[in-house]
Design brief:
By secondary structure, the protein is of the alpha/beta class. About 45% of the residues lie in helices and about 25% in strands. The chain folds into 2 domains: about 250 residues, Rossmann fold (3-Layer(aba) Sandwich), CATH 3.40.50; about 40 residues, no CATH class. It has 8 helices and 10 strands. A 6-stranded mixed sheet has the order 5-4-3-6-7-10, sandwiched between helices. Helix 3 links the parallel strand 3 and strand 4. About 30% of the residues are buried.
Length: about 300
């Protein structure tokens, strides 16, 4: 992709996602992802309805009138995007590819973060760590992230989420908010395998992990189209599938239902908030619902 085409794509994503962040997500994001605590701001005279526990008795005695301490939320956070760039993201049957959905999600979260004066950093991963962008503030930093999302070419096609979580846990020392953005098509997160769950539990104990699962409807249900040659994008292997066979379609649907149930149960055991986002549907409502759930706690 040449420079002018890349800049056009960056600008298009910036306009769409920054607008969403400004108009929709900023307030919900602020409520959902709170700062480290409360810091002292000022002292003012007591007003009816103020909490008497906030009275500053030293100032009250000095001025012979009640004064209270005013605190404000310490807003600055570090937000990390842990982004799956394996080849399974190069799939989509209707509106967009999973990769394009991941790019938009990442941009929206980045703009929401800098609006709240938070730092934002990125880990790109496949079955290895492809790139680490340290957390920083500012629009120029966000635009760099978007450029990387659009133009990044991973060295590997495969997926290892556990490895990415272990790297993230080791490299980010201070507690932060981390969005794990992936389709979770990884053996370590399949039913009966505890490797992924163990890595997620450890990471979430140190940090605050939020799982954003992206998927396409054809990964859930195969239509009857006859004999179809299918490619596993991560292994490079082809396989002929008889989609007209009802048992084949039912077995595929059953596996996906079991996998969904397994992942939802796994997120619950790990204490991780999660949401599933489909390539041909708007991510606004499910993401807003996630923010509201967190904000109400």
């Amino acid at each position: 992709m040449d420079t002018s085409e890349l800049l056009k794509k960056v600008r298009k994503i910036e306009i769409k996602t920054k607008g969403l962040s400004n108009q929709i997500f900023s307030g919900e994001y602020h409520s959902a992802f709170k700062g480290k605590g409360m810091t002292f701001s000022e002292v003012r005279e007591y007003q009816f309805g103020d909490d008497i526990r906030a009275i500053d008795w030293n100032v009250t005695a000095r001025f012979n009138a009640p004064f209270i301490k005013v605190f404000e939320e310490e807003r600055e956070l570090t937000v990390m995007l842990i982004i799956d760039v394996s080849s399974s993201k190069e799939f989509g049957t209707k509106l967009q590819y999973k990769k394009e959905l991941v790019t938009e999600l990442s941009a929206v979260l980045s703009f929401s973060a800098i609006q709240n004066n938070d730092k934002i950093g990125v880990v790109f991963f496949s079955d290895k760590i492809e790139k680490f962008i340290p957390p920083k503030k500012g629009k120029a930093h966000i635009l760099r992230i978007i450029r990387e999302l659009i133009n990044f070419k991973p060295e590997s096609k495969k997926t290892d989420i556990s490895n990415a979580l272990q790297y993230f846990t080791n490299v980010i020392k201070k507690r932060c908010i981390a969005f794990l953005i992936t389709d979770f098509l990884d053996e370590s997160f399949s039913p009966g395998n505890t490797v992924g769950e163990d890595a997620l539990k450890i990471a979430n104990k140190k940090h605050d992990i939020v799982a954003l699962r992206v998927y396409d409807e054809r990964e859930k249900k195969i239509p009857a189209m006859g004999l179809v040659k299918m490619l596993d994008a991560e292994s490079g292997k082809f396989r002929w599938i008889d989609t007209s066979n009802k048992k084949v379609r039912e077995k595929f649907a059953l596996w996906n239902a079991e996998n969904d149930s397994n992942l939802n149960a796994l997120f619950g055991r790990c204490g991780v908030d999660s949401v599933s986002l489909r390539t041909d549907q708007s991510y606004v409502r499910p993401l807003m619902s996630l923010f509201k759930r967190r904000g109400s706690r």
